Fold these 3 entries.
Entry 1:
Amino acid sequence: MTDALDGLLEHLRERFGDHVLSARRDLDELTIELRPAELIEVMTALRDEQPFRFEQLIDLCGVDYAAYGEGEWITEQASNAGFSRGVKGNSFARLGLTGIYGVDTIETNTGRRFAAVYHLLSVTHNHRLRVRVFCEDDNFPVVPSVIDVWAGVNWFEREAFDLYGLIFEGHPDLRRLLTDYGFIGHPFRKDFPLIGNVEVRYNEEKGRVVYEPVSIEPRVLVPRVVRQDSRYADADQPQEGADNG
């Protein structure tokens, strides 16, 4: 697998040159980054040209890099405040603020907020490739639709639009896919409150379902726990107290 990935990476660099902004190998997986303007050209070549032959797009997902790597339960510099760190944490999403820690403009520690990530499979060569494209405008995230390259991406792009608000330019029917009719916002964005914006109930007087402001108190009750027991132990490592005789 290592030789195959090295060969694929070499072919990618020779064929696309500066079109590939970055290429990274991690855990025997290859990830490349492209610009939105060059996405269709490169994706078409990845599908059609013999050294690549990525016949299938097996997944597409959105990513919101706002507050990337941050959270209420980070413990590297934790005090003895314990559980209260989570209940009164600094998560803007859980507190329902307009942006990170209440500011109107959401900044990221990666420089760009939204990205579309594509997972490609070559049946011919038994290769897998991850392609990432960052949106250039955080306030109006747009990337080209690849539906003319892989028709099966239709629902994936609709899902990313629904959950993250990514606009796929050229998609013939970019409608919400998972949320309810009249839903406002994009629930997988980091600044969308975990308690939601509205709640639904049946009103007997009106004889119909009504939407009302959410009444749930935003709290974090489940800390991140790293368990040290046999369920998470490395099978290759001897267990403490085990009989080695």
Note: The longest strand covers residues 56-64.
Entry 2:
Amino acid sequence: MSKTFSGKEVTKALRRIGYYVDHQRGSHIFMHNISENKSVIVPNHKELKKGTLNNILKKVGISIEQLKELI
């Protein structure tokens, strides 16, 4: 995983697969997908840490390759 992703990029990618911004509290964006009934929190930081990104991807159910295609 050589490329780093920002919170803005991840939010944009999640919107493309059906997530919408529910609300935001500080620098954390709360996203929800009604059809799958899943929620995920994305920190709106310049660079997401590797573990944070992996947890988001695991919860959403996509791989790092799929994320790269969506961005």
Note: The first strand starts at residue 20 and ends at 25.
Entry 3:
Amino acid sequence: MKYSRLTKEQLEEMHAEFSKFLATQAIDKFEWDQIKIEKPEVAEQELDVFSDLVWEGVLSKTEYLEHFSKNHIFLFQCYDTYVKSIILKSLVPKVDFLTKEGLHWLSDNLFTETIEIKIGKKEFSEDRNQSLFQLIQQGAILSDGQLFKQINTIIESE
């Protein structure tokens, strides 16, 4: 398995897609129910293959990722061969970016000495999607890129 199996909740939400996936292999509901009982290891393999297909599709379309922690915000713009990053770090320990107040504080203090901003670029050393998946496993979430674009525009205009 290349990525990780979708959760039970994710699989339930993708019920229609999973049914189509099984249909491409000429497996109907009756047959699937039999496989789950008689050959659970085959059922597990089917779930793994489907999960990998879903992850591959999602990761291939991923343009932006974000990861918030108490004192850091990591913003990523994903290209074919590299990822560009903007890292915001609060130099005020009591600030918590995981709260609404912390984000408000950030907007008021973005370009002061209390915020450290680092910009980076990293070439993918391995498969692009695998690299993005690792970021997700570390806590990053898919994003529309709005915050990245806003901060990047301000940084580039300085």
Note: Residues 40-61 form the longest helix (22 residues).
